[in-house]
Each structure stands twice: as structure tokens, then as C-alpha cells.
Amino acid sequence: MNQPDIMITQHDLEQIEGLLATPTKKPDCVDALEGELARAKVVKSAELPENVVAIGSTVTFKIVATGATFTKVLCLPRDAEQVENGISVFAPIGAAILGLAEGQQIEWDSPRGQQRIEIINVAHG
């Protein structure tokens, strides 16, 4: 299945690439994240639509197969534990939702196997 188009800000791209360039242990999903970054349309922060997931966004999404919904804040790894309901962009689901818009769906590899999620709502700030 084709993955949906995604859009990220130049600022988010630079932050993530900077972390990927550091000589620390890389997360398991680094290949998937790098693939997402490579296919993303990169825009200035002011040009990112309000309904697109960026670092710092509060995102409500659902697991399509079960209908279970979750609300998380997409964060850089260093912030994920300090932010209530934070999820790292380096976590498999964090990498999957980066750059998606409300209504878009994507398949991602979870500990329970491949699942499909849908973005329900995105809030910034």
C-alpha cells in the first residue's frame, strides 16, 4: 500500500537530523524515520497547515482495527518523559505520525505487528 504524503517543517527536520547525526545508540525505528524524512515535503514553520502533525503537536489518533483512540504529544526524545502523554518522534508510532494531516491513515510496525492508524485531530501549541 502507498503511504500518504507527509509534510514537515525545516526546523523539525534539522532537529531530527541533528539527533540522528549524534554518535549515540540509534533507535530501532531509525531506518523508518529516515525513510519518512526522505519522502517528506519540507516547508517553513509558518507554511505548515494547522492540521498537520509536527514536533510539539497534540495528536488524537485511532487504531483502525480496534477503534481505540489515544491522545499524545509528539516530542523530541529528550522531552518525551517530561511531557504528559509525550511520545518520542523516535518511537515507531511517533515516526509514523510525523507529518500526517487529519484524516490521513498510515500503516506502522508495532510490537503487535503491523497496524493502521488514522489521525483524528491535531492541535499546536
Automatic annotation (TrEMBL):
Domain Regulator of nucleoside diphosphate kinase N-terminal residue range list: 4-43
Gene Ontology MF, one: DNA binding
Keyword entries, A-Z: Elongation factor, Protein biosynthesis
Domain spans labelled Transcription elongation factor GreA/GreB C-terminal: 49-123
Keyword match Protein biosynthesis: yes
Organism: Pseudidiomarina donghaiensis
Coiled coil segments of this chain: none
InterPro entries to which the protein is assigned, alphabetical: GreA/GreB_C_sf, Rnk_N, Tscrpt_elong_fac_GreA/B_C, Tscrpt_elong_fac_GreA/B_fam
Gene Ontology terms describing biological process: DNA-templated transcription elongation; regulation of DNA-templated transcription elongation
Name assigned to this protein: Transcription elongation factor GreAB
Claim: Membrane is one of the keywords in the record: no
Superkingdom field: Bacteria
Signal sequence segment: none
